[in-house]
Amino acid sequence: MEIRQLMYFIAVAEELHFGRAAKRLGMTQPPLSQQIFKLEEYLEVKLFHRTKRKVVLTEAGHYFYKESVKINRNLHSIIQNTKLIDNGMLGTLKIGFGPDYGTLTKILKIYEQHHPNVQLQLEQMPTAEQLMALEKKEIHIGLLPGPIKKKNIESNVVAEHPYKVALPISHPLAKEVGGIDLQQLKDENFIMTPREIGPAYYDTIINICNTAGFHPHISKRTHELQTIIPLIAANMGIAIVPELVNYFNREEVVFLPIKNCDITMKNCIAWNVEARSPMIDLFIELVKSIK
To answer: Which family is it part of (predicted)?
Structure first.
């Protein structure tokens, strides 16, 4: 049985006239009659009662018509969805992300407006886990500090955040609204994430402190950047954090600018070049166009 035979059958079943059905299909009546006969032969079922005056569906024909319409509808949907997938406009896009909720929210809001049929599967994970997931092709896109320097991972900067000093509100320097000279922090207890979790952030903070003439004393470590803030609120230390962490601000913590420091955290979208697809390409191009 061929798909076209179903289309021929539906036309005859709806017109109940071989001549009108043939005209609707853009063909002549003899080959149409032949195809319906072949379909009945294949099914070993009589689908129509034919007389010189009229064509009537048999009981089996009525059933076969209803099911054929469903098949036709489903086939149309399958074809349309196949085209959407081929154009990158249907499917599931897996995105890993870190603490930059502001940038993530901005990107997702615009992306969903353009591609409402794509399901977004989001998973929060540290930088190291995102890179591993990209390598293993477990996620399609990562939103993480960069740029990324790996041969099979490409990245594009989408946001830059200046670094600030986060202090407990009770700290003696908490009122230095004009900015902090990092030399004032050389004897402080720092809270940081381990290097294996986020090497870009860790190395940047060490570099900032070394440039200021000291190596930070790291008294506490936490596996997520945002969890540094409640530790500071509990007077367990201070931290140098990207401004994006303001998203998790608490009354007990103040964020102050750093004097003579123009280093920023560059957040990127990243992808595995060996796992490109139309859906990933569309996401990358859209994000690049966002100002």
So the answer is: Belongs to the LysR transcriptional regulatory family.
